[in-house]
Structure to design on (331 residues):
């Protein structure tokens, strides 16, 4: 089991999930508490891999709410670091997507950028011996940007049966960051985040979507006093471990313009965090959440998604209720 000081550190650069959704037609947070703000945990769900092949612009507006009041160590127990701790986040995430007229390897080449705006509220009762006070700040999060290749759907029997997309994103440490606070909109380090998404339609009314991510993090050279207080004296460099995760959604068309189904995400840290170049064992995060979702097709240019996530498995992270509302508009 983690000591309380270890868990105090793990809350330091808490992640609020941000969508990385590159689509023109229908498609479709926490992670490790050391992972960067701006990664897509559950923000993309049904019909995820569909996207336009023609040149044009799309905007996506995501509104996300999270309420977290449980904190888990490596054994799935509450270490008691925070007394009556609460982490609440309201995030507005505007995203802009451009599909160019250029094609590469059969796919349409495009570019996307997104920038979260956060209202973070972290609180706890005054800490006793071995505990910690939960503190936060709000502001602009880290910008995420990158190119993508959108491929045309494979048609069989007069309907689409499979479509896919590849994207390579960079997360830049442009967000608000206060090294004296435990919860920040920005991570204060660079990350690389490629993903591959596909949607399979086994029947005219059924769709299965999966988005598979890989995350590589660079070092944080200003981890802050709260990050290391009492546990890693003299720490000057922290590096979050590499991670993989998948978003997934299974939907059924109950009406011509309404799909409902089950959505979820699975996150797993695959390498150790390091402090001043030294690996920290037994601190890897696992996060599995599931819940209901729906997609409403307003018209061929406008789509609305609603998704709810409830925790199933949590290790070395916080836990609670997670809800997304997302609107896609193509120009």
């Amino acid at each position: 089991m983690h000591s309380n000081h270890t868990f105090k550190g793990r809350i330091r650069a808490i992640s609020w999930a941000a969508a990385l959704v590159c689509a023109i037609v229908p498609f479709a947070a926490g992670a490790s508490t050391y992972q960067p703000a701006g990664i897509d945990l559950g923000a993309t769900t049904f019909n995820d891999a569909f996207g336009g092949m023609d040149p044009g612009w799309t905007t996506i507006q995501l509104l996300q709410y999270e309420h977290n009041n449980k904190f888990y160590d490596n054994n799935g127990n509450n270490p008691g670091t925070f007394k009556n701790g609460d982490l609440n986040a309201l995030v507005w995430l505007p995203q802009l997507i451009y599909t160019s007229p250029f094609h590469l390897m059969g796919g349409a080449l495009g570019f996307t950028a997104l920038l979260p705006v956060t209202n973070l509220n972290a609180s706890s009762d005054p800490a006793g011996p071995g505990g910690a006070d939960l503190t936060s700040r709000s502001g602009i999060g880290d910008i995420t940007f990158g190119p993508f290749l959108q491929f045309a759907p494979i048609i069989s029997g007069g309907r689409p049966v499979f479509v896919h997309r590849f994207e390579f994103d960079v997360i830049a440490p442009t967000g608000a960051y206060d090294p004296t606070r435990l919860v920040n909109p920005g991570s204060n380090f660079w990350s690389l985040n490629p993903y591959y998404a596909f949607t399979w339609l086994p029947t005219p009314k059924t769709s299965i979507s999966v988005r598979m991510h890989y995350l590589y993090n660079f070092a944080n050279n200003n981890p802050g006093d709260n990050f290391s207080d009492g546990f890693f004296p003299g720490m000057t460099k922290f590096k979050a471990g590499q991670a993989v995760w998948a978003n997934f959604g299974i939907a059924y068309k109950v009406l011509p313009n309404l799909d409902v189904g089950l959505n979820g995400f699975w996150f797993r840290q695959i390498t150790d965090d390091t402090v001043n170049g030294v690996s920290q064992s037994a601190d890897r995060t696992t996060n599995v959440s599931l819940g209901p979702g729906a997609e409403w097709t307003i018209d061929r240019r406008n789509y609305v998604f609603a998704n709810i996530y409830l925790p199933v498995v949590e290790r070395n992270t916080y836990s609670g209720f997670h809800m997304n509302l997302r609107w896609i508009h193509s120009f």
About this structure: The chain has a mean pLDDT of 81. The chain has one domain: 4-330. Residues 4-330 form a domain with the Porin fold (CATH 2.40.160.40).
